[in-house]
Amino acid sequence: MGRPKNFEPDVVVAQAMETFWSKGYAGTSPADLAEATGVGKGSLYHAFGSKRELFDKALDLYGRVGTEMTEAYLNEPGTAKERIRAYMVFLVDMDLSAPVRRGCLAANTALELGGRDTEATAKVGRITEQSIRLFTERLRRGQREGDVDPALDVEAQAKYLMSMVAGLRVMAKTHERDALHGIIETALAGL
Amino acid sequence: MGRPKNFEPDVVVAQAMETFWSKGYAGTSPADLAEATGVGKGSLYHAFGSKRELFDKALDLYGRVGTEMTEAYLNEPGTAKERIRAYMVFLVDMDLSAPVRRGCLAANTALELGGRDTEATAKVGRITEQSIRLFTERLRRGQREGDVDPALDVEAQAKYLMSMVAGLRVMAKTHERDALHGIIETALAGL
DNA sequence: CCAATTTTTGACCTGTAGTTCAAAAACATT
DNA sequence: AATGTTTTTGAACTACAGGTCAAAAATTGG
């Protein structure tokens, strides 16, 4: 009962995510969010409480979608190295093909809010850990299947790969496709 | 002639740099800058024109200081690998020992303003290129001195190292010293 | 159709960002 | 000490950020 919502909360969160992604947290105003979602400011506040709470949901969504994509890429047929390379190339190409170079929402948040905003930082930390876990699992599987050196310290390698991904997405703000692809090859030479 | 300034512009730029570094560009208000520098808002505008122009000077200073430090670290006695490792460890430890995790001003700027603000992005790009050049030169020297494989593609390796540094400084927002040092070791295993 | 409930709308409010400016202050020169 | 020059000070101003609220609108149940 009651008047029905004329928007889908999930799609509003997704639209908000896009906006925060493009403009940053501080750079996104309630008016921006209203315009991006097509929902009135008042309604947004009624539904989500505050800009910050909406951002939290957006960041959660980003983490879920990112995890799904990572999982999907890593688990397609191929060796661990091939799949990790494909994943990195995908990320870089995605960054570069977007009209505005927005990088990684989690990394952006870490750099914009990190240190001051403990909750946001913790959330980014969890997203990061999740990615590291996926890399770890994929490398272990590679060891079982024989395409990854059994002596490799997979935990250390996974953290290294995570760091690599973060670095690539920073570099994507200033560098071109060829340079980035070259970095990927260099980074994976040891695998 | 005329009333003398009661502040050193260079010092003010340095203080502004620290503030932007800690709080980000959008997160730093003119009032913050006045407090950090001890100079009245009006005087700041009189001397620097706008928040944006002051930020430009701060970013330039950051680039110069960063380049000097990189040069100093890379050129102390030791092999290329040893010196690059020492430099990375230094950066990470510096990030971690600061009371507030502020990362790298250039990377922060790239992520906060990158894509929208072309001039800031270009400036970050130049700082990045400078670092890459220093890595390249140090690796070449290593080749001459016999501690770096002569077959190594030093340009590609230098870009890779730059990306690594960027990644490490993002990771420094959420991870601990041990993990970061581990990443450095993994990253340098191929050298 | 009335009551109860929930959402929307749009006006409104407080605080601060970013900037400007007029007047006073501090110097050098004559 | 009067003049010209440059800087400081502090108030003032516009715009917008972030958020609140009262009233209207849209629904369901009785």
Given as residue ranges, the uncertain stretches of chain A (5+ residues, pLDDT < 50) are: none
Largest sheet descriptor of chain A: none
Measured on Cα atoms, how large is the radius of gyration of chain A? 19 Å
Mean pLDDT of chain A: 95
Tell me what you see in this structure:
Two copies of one chain form a homodimer. Chain A has 191 residues and is mostly helical. Chain A has a domain of 131 residues: Tetracycline Repressor, domain 2. The first copy, chain A, has nine helices and no strands. In chain A, α4 packs parallel to α7 and α6 crosses α7. The first copy, chain A, is elongated and about 60 Å long. The N and C termini of chain A lie far apart (59 Å). The interface between A and B is large, with 46 and 46 residues. Chain A binds a DNA duplex (30 and 30 nucleotides) through α3.
Question: Helices and strands in order, then pairings?
Answer:
Two copies of one chain form a homodimer.
Chain A: H1 9-23, H2 30-37, H3 41-48, H4 51-74, H5 80-97, H6 105-113, H7 118-145, H8 154-171, H9 177-188
Helix pairs in contact in A: 1-2, 1-4, 4-7, 5-9, 6-7, 7-8, 8-9
The structure holds a DNA duplex (30 and 30 nucleotides).
In short:
The structure is a homodimer. With about 190 residues, chain A is mainly alpha-helical.
Summary keywords:
homodimer; 191 residues; mainly alpha; Tetracycline Repressor, domain 2; 9 helices; 73% helix; DNA-binding
